[in-house]
Each structure stands twice: as structure tokens, then as C-alpha cells.
Amino acid sequence: MGNPGIASEKKKRRARRGPFTSLSFSASLPGDVRGALAESICAVKYSSDPLADFRESILEMIRDGGVKDWEEMEELVYCYVVLNSSDVRCFIADAFLSVCSTCLQLPSGNDH
Q1: Which band of pLDDT confidence, cut at 50, 70 and 90, is reported for residue 103?
Q2: Rounded distance, CA 49 to CA 28, Å?
Q3: Comparing C-alpha atoms, which of 39, 25, 44 is closest to residue 67?
Q4: Which three-class secondary structure state does DSSP give residue 106?
Q5: Residue 62 needs a FRET pair 20 to 30 A away by CA distance; which of 37, 39, 81, 86 works?
């Protein structure tokens, strides 16, 4: 029989990490990615808040990764879906919807 103190400590560590700490971003970009995203670097990230982390990553790619139009945004969605487990696709979808919704609400600067 195992040591109850060790088992208890493992449970405590697991509880502190939260339910989503085993989810991660992938680290290898698909070979068929073209355009502004082709030179991007993927990073592995363990997350306790996948929605917030995906949203932050998407905004960073739009701002710093050269995403300038809807076609490139579709390519970005493709990358996130292909690179990540089906377990996190709901977070990816919600993050993209949130980003798109925010972008649609921003003033264009052309309104007078």
C-alpha cells in the first residue's frame, strides 16, 4: 500500500493547477500555411485560462503577425484549429468570435 501522505500531496498539487492545466498549444506550424503567417513561430503554452490566452494570442498575431485582411484571419483560424487539440476548439472559436466582435465595434476613423 502506498504512503497516504504522498497521495494527499499529489491531490493538493493537482487541485492547485486547476482543471485546464493539461491543455496546451502545439509547437509546429502546418506546412501548407502561406502568406504573413508562414514565418510565424509557434509556442507551447499550458493554460489555466485557455479562452483568455487564445484571445491574447490571436490579438498579438493580428497586431504583430501581419494579419491585415479577412483571408489572413481565416488562415489564422486554420492554424489555431490544426495546431491544437479538439479539446480546446471551443475556446478557439469563442476567442475568435470575441476578437471579431470587438473589431466590428471599433470606430473606423472614417466616420464624420
Answers
A1: confident
A2: 22
A3: 39
A4: coil
A5: 86
